[in-house]
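DM between two lab members

TW: hey, do you still have the Oxidoreductase entry open?
JB: yeah, one sec
JB: this one, 318 aa:
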Amino acid sequence: MIPVVVRNVVTEAQGVVRLVLGSEDGSALPAFEAGAHIDLHLPSGLTRQYSLCRLPADAQYYEIAVLKDPQSRGGSAEVHRVKIGDALSVSAPKNHFPLMQTKRHSLLIAGGIGVTPMLPMAQQLQKVGLPFDFHYCAKSPETAAFSNALENSSFADKMHFHYSQVASSGRMDVTRILSQHLADSELYICGPADFINYVLLQANRLGWPEARLHREFFAAPALGDEVSENTAFKVKIHSTGEVFDVEADQSIFEVLDENGVFLAVSCESGVCGTCQTGVIEGIPDHRDVFLTDQEHAQGKLVMPCCSRSKTPILELDL
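TW: and the structure you got?
JB:
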């Protein structure tokens, strides 16, 4: 963990605060690229993941923006109580949502607080001179974090704002926009789970290749009716041959942890990708939103924090 101090707290929109986190001694914090996030360790002991929302102008600072979620489990509410001068700690940046190494046009779509990883993506694309369009969907300008900054940015000509509660703006015509960029673009999307799923559904219907669809969920969507009921199974550790029982009310991670098998875990809901583990034998019952549909079908990876097994034994590459 890296100790940091809250250097500034800024209200960016209704219900959204931006924290400027600085190193304790003014030294440089670990570098990162657009799309990265950090684990924020709060005084209560909670750990939450937040996207780094701006490329650094000064290497001693990180910036995150956090929406106070009415359904908060405590994390966002605690962030909104943080004050200038408070001591916190963070992880080194992790990036499971990077820009692809391509000169192809990028289509950035943000829903609400999903703007946070998109802003540094736009900064990076503008900096290197690659083509992109940035569509930002929110209820109104008052609820849209960074809207003023984006309207006055160096890439303002690439911005498209869609405010559902503003009659002159209205909702984004997803099908039309996706159709315009089907042949030439990489799609990056972040926002509420239902918003992401709707856009990806339309992209799939239009024939977008899976490899050009990139998304980051902030929280896992509710499991649908197609998800099977939890049943017990066994998990096998490839390196030792140990076999452990996973009961219907236990996760793979919980069982591994109880038996002294270390596995790095962060979100515990299949969103962040931290616990991604290889599968040697067996068929995973995927419950995550991190892996792509193609990776789910291949069955070579699993998220032990939330996923289960369709076969009596699931052998993991641990």
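TW: got it. Residues 2-90 form a domain with the Elongation Factor Tu (Ef-tu); domain 3 fold (CATH 2.40.30.10). The chain has three domains: 2-90, 105-217, 233-316.
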